[in-house]
Amino acid sequence: MARAQVFVFTPTHEEYRILAGSLKADDFQNFDLKVVESGPGLVNTAAKGAAVLEPFREVSDKPYLILGAGICGSLNLKLRAGDAVCSASAILGDWAMETDHARTYGVYGEASYKSPGASAADEMSLASTSPQVQELTKRLAAKGFLSGRLFSSDTFITGLTAKLERGRRFGCLGADMESGALAWVAGGLGLPWLNIRVMADTMD
Asked: How do strand 31-37 and strand 4-10 relate by DSSP bridges?
């Protein structure tokens, strides 16, 4: 019987080097581990994710878990550098419309835009609902990981006001450039996914 497979996607070469050097495949008894460097950003992550995971679309022996790992920027004053977040919810935040008066957002791939509040943000969210992800999230929470949504955008978000506004508007703990794309690809292929991110900054 084939061992379960777990794929860990990291954005940058530095993150890949650290994880690939510290997580060895033979360290785990119950599954085979493969660390993949996707490259930074939504397009790189989607392209690499599709290339690696597409072969599993038509087979019954699918990977046990697709894991995104790396750092993110804080969107919440309560979070501190080094805090770890496990996230089974992500928003692709670049599906937007600009007018002379405002920027509105929509569910990725749908031509409908609005100013998001809590309900609209929930509608925009990609969620991982597989039983193993739910169980893993509970176990990580018991070890001190925070649980919450991540905001993914190819736009670097800097400045206290801009970060707090994104966090409040979309109900997100942190922002990165990859988690939403990995969720989009893995979820589209019916594969269980989870993102783990470490806060890179303390906002205040």
From this structure: parallel
